[in-house]
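Worked example

This section walks through a single chain of length 92. The input is the sequence exactly as stored; nothing has been trimmed or padded.
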Amino acid sequence: MGTMTIRKLDDDTIEKFKDIAKRNNRSAEAEARSLIEDFTAGRIVRHDMETSNFYDSLRKFMEENNIEGLAEGEFQPPERTISDERPTVTFG
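Given that input, the structure is written out below as C-alpha cells.
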C-alpha cells in the first residue's frame, strides 16, 4: 500500500474535513481514502463508458457466458457526437 501526503491545506479546511469525517464515523484518513477511492472508481467507469462500445461489450459478455441473443449488426449503435442532444433510436 502506498502513502500520500497532501501539503498546503488551510487549517480551517482540515478542521472542517475532520468534522465531516467524524459525522461519518470515520477518521480523517479513512474519509480521505474513501473519497479518493470513490472518485477514482467513478473516473474509471466514466472513461470506460466514453471509450467503449456498449453493444460490443454486451455481445462479448453474452458470448463468454453462452447467452444467445444479439447477433452482429442486429442493433447498430448511434454515431458518437459531442452534442448533448439524444440520438434518434430506430429498430428494424
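What to look for: The helical segments are 11-23, 28-51, 54-64.
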